Amino acid sequence: MTAPTVDVHAHVLLPEVEALVAGLPGLAEARALDARRNGPASLAVSGPMVAERVPKLTDVAVRLAAMDARGVDVQLVSPSPSHYHYWADEETAERLYRLAGEATAAHCAQAPDRLHGLGLVPLQHPRLAVRALEHALEQGLSGVEISSHAPGRELSDPAYEPFWARAAATGAILFLHPFGCTLDERLDQWYLSNVVGQPTENAVALSHLIFSGVLDRHPDLRIIAAHGGGYLPTHIGRSDHAWSARSDAGAGCAHPPSSYLRRLYFDSLVHDPHGLRELIRVAGPDRVLLGSDFPFDMGTEDPVGALRAARLPDADFHAVRGGNAAALLRKD
């Protein structure tokens, strides 16, 4: 039996979440930072782009029709990263992750054979992380979505150790999807905030997980890195060299950094068939999953066609197209 075609990088917009934070202290400051990071020209394009995609982001019937047109059987649906709101205080953050998990679960429940969902974790409050993960799993979700960092905390922060341990023990899927790059105004033209910022944040976050030994301590973690892991997989040789050449670089992890790529999962969204082939070479054909960033403009309208353009062996093509993700979702 042929495995279904599974897209692991697809988003849902949750108006309930935005209603929850509307008018709260901190929101205006967070939006001002986002505006500085993106720049006025990018904001002028992004607003209408998102507005015209609201039906695909909120209406299950429209979503399913779009999936059919793309040849996608199943989506792993994560909240729009704009819903992270890592500025929120602890009380608001708890209400937010509960609302996001319940709303995402309700969205997916309208087509349970085709939609699997992810919740959110307030990384700015590490002591809530385990509770947020467990709440998501209680809703029948497959795991949670996290960003590349929280204000003042990298993913290597020891405060997250209970979260990593619980995620490994439960087999939850963790979808690592950045939102906002700390290079700030250096990237405020030509949409560099996303074009360069997202793959940079992916590379930094994964490097923290690798070099700090998180993946040594929690080898059963099931992390999917969006955007093909950003710049890291194609430059992992530099990480290996540092690990072997410098005592400070090699102090935190037990093995060469490149070996950890085969403990992670990556979506296929690299926008280049040669880059995709290289990702599959370094991570393994069993560690790459189809991803489209549905329905945003920085995604692909034809994820299967983009995969086909890499001219992979048939077994690898079908593994990435859906076999790997189907196996991952069956473990939930």
Describe it:
The structure is a single chain. This protein is an alpha/beta fold and 332 residues long. It has a single domain (6-330), classed as Metal-dependent hydrolases (TIM Barrel), CATH 3.20.20. The protein contains 15 helices and ten strands. Helix 1 packs antiparallel against helix 5 and helix 3 packs across helix 4. The longest helix is centred in the N-terminal third of the chain and has 20 residues, at 90-109. It starts with 5 loop residues before the first strand and ends with a helix. The model has no long low-confidence stretch (mean pLDDT 97).
Topology:
Layout: E1 6-12, H1 15-21, H2 27-38, H3 40-58, H4 60-70, E2 74-79, H5 90-109, E3 115-120, H6 129-138, E4 143-146, E5 149-150, E6 153-154, H7 161-170, E7 173-176, H8 192-195, H9 197-211, H10 214-217, E8 222-225, H11 236-245, H12 257-260, E9 265-267, H13 273-283, E10 288-289, H14 303-308, H15 314-330
Parallel strand pairs: 1-2, 2-3, 3-4, 4-7, 7-8, 8-9, 9-10
Antiparallel strand pairs: 5-6
Helix pairs in contact: 1-5, 3-4
Number-wise, the strands total 10
Query: What strand order characterises the main sheet?
Result: 1-2-3-4-7-8-9-10
- Oligomer kind: single chain
User: What's the number of structural domains?
Assistant: 1
Give the radius of gyration. Answer: 19 Å
Order of helices and strands: EHHHHEHEHEEEHEHHHEHHEHEHH
Protein name: Amidohydrolase
Pfam families: Amidohydro_2
InterPro entries: ACMSD, Amidohydro-rel, Metal_Hydrolase
GO cellular component, one term: cytoplasm
